Amino acid sequence: MSDESIPEHEPEQGQVPAPGTEQVDPATAWRAGFCAIVGLPNVGKSTLLNRILGQHLSAVSAKPQTTRDRILGIHAITLPDELPSRAQIAYVDTPGVQDGKGPLRRYMQNGALAAANDADVVCVIIDGTDRRGRMPDRLDYEDAAGLRDASRKHPMVIGLNKVDRVGKPELLPVIEAWAKALPGTDIVPISAQTGDSVDVLERVIAKLLPVGPQLFPDDMVTDRSAQFIAQELIREQLYHQLGKELPYACAVQIEAWSERPNGDLAISAVIVVERDSQKAIVVGRGGNRIRELGIAARQVVSQALKTTVHLNLFVKVLESWSSGEAALKRFGYTGGDA
User: Fold this and answer.
1) Sheet of 265-273, strands arranged across
2) How far apart (Å, rounded) are the C-alpha atoms in residues 64 and 44?
3) Are 327 and 318 in contact (CB under 8 A)?
4) Which residues, in sequence order, are bridge partners of residue 161?
5) What is the pLDDT of residue 98?
6) Which residues of the chain have pLDDT under 70?
7) pLDDT digits (tens, 9 = 90+) for 7-29
8) What is the end-to-end Cα distance of the chain in Å, rounded?
9) In whole angstroms, how far apart are CA 302 and each of 103, 234, 258, 311?
C-alpha cells in the first residue's frame, strides 16, 4: 500500500466510527445532563428548583419530608464566552435524606440515593442557618452517609443556601470547612428564596455536564403530568394550613379530572388519612378547615396550571395506609423500590 493510504484514525468510506470516537462540534453541541439536587430535610431543595424554573412545580413547606418523589425540572441557560455556549440541565429534586422506619420513608430515602447515583452532577444543598447540619462532618452521620457516598461518585457542587439570613463572618468558617473537606469542589453561597446567586450556581453546574446533544425539547419543563402537579400542590396546602396538627401519614389522590368547554379544569381530589381523629382535624369544625384548604389549593393550582380550576376536596380514612405496600403503590409510592 502506498504512503498515501488512509490514516488509521479515519474510518474508511461506509465504516461506522467506534463508539466514543465521534467528533462533536462545540459550536452546535450542548452541555446536557442530569443534576441531582440532594441534601438533608428542609434545606431548600424544592424552593431552589421552583426558583430556577420560574414556576411552582415542587411542593414547599417548613415541614420535613414535604417532597416525597423525585421531580424532574428542565432548564436551559447560555454560557457566555464558553464552548459549547448552551446548556440544558435536567434537575432532579429529591426528598430530604433522613432515617426512619416504614416503607414510605424507605421509598423516599431510596429515591434520593438513586437520583444521586444516576446523576451526571450532584448539587448538595446545605442550610447555612443550621449550625448542626451545615458542616461537612454532618454527612458522616448514619442517616446521611449513604448520600455522602453516592454523591462522591460524581462531580459535586455545594450550594450553601439561605445566606440572606446569615452574616458573612459566620459563613466564612463554613465555606472554609467545605473547601478543606472537598478540595477543588465549588462552594456557591446562594439564597433560593430571593434568587441571589442562583444563576452563578447554574453556570457552575452546567460546566460540569458532559458535552453532547440536547436531551429534551425546548418547550419541555418536566416529565410530570398536570395531575401530579395538582396533587402535590394540594398536599402542600395541607402543610401550610394545618402546620404541626397535620399528620405525617397523609396523601392526596386525584379521583376526577375533566376539562370544560371554556378551558376550565374541574378536579375532585381525596385527602387520605389513617384515623378518624385525623379526618376531624382536616375537615375542621363545621367543615371550615377543608373549605379554607380548598380555596388556597384552588388558587395555587390555578396559578401553576395557568387556567381556572374548580376544586372539590373530600377526606377519606384508610387505616395504616403508609405501612402497607399495596396502598403505597396505589398512591404512587413503591414502598422503597424507587
Assistant:
1) 251-259, 265-273, 309-317
2) 11
3) yes
4) 127
5) 73
6) 1-27, 64-65, 99-100, 246-248, 334-338
7) 444 444 445 444 444 566 666 78
8) 58
9) 32, 11, 14, 10
Which residue is associated with the grid cell 429529591?
94
Q: What is the pLDDT of residue 26?
A: 64
Identify the pLDDT of residue 13: 46
Q: Please state whether beta strands 186-189 and 86-93 pair in parallel, antiparallel, or not at all (unpaired).
A: unpaired
Q: What distance in Å separates the CA atoms of residue 149 and residue 155, rounded to the nearest whole number?
A: 12
336 C-beta neighbours (distance < 10 Å), count: 17
Task: Tell me if 158 sits within 8 A of 185, measured CB to CB.
Answer: yes
What gap in Å lies between CA 228 and CA 73, rounded to an integer?
A: 13
Q: How far apart are CA 300 and CA 56, in angstroms?
A: 8
State the pTM of this model: 0.86
pLDDT in tens, 141-175: 988 898 899 999 999 999 999 999 999 999 999 99
**Domains with residue ranges and CATH for the chain:** 30-212 (3.40.50.300), 226-330 (3.30.300.20)
At 334 the pLDDT is 59
Give the per-residue pLDDT at 324. 72
Instruction: State how far the Cα of 46 lies from the Cα of 292, in Å rounded to an integer.
Output: 24
**How much is the CA Rg of the chain, to the nearest whole Å?**
23
1's CB contacts (< 8 A; 6+ apart) are: none
C-alpha cell at 190: 446562594
Q: Which of 109, 110, 103, 106 is nearest to 324 (CA)?
A: 103
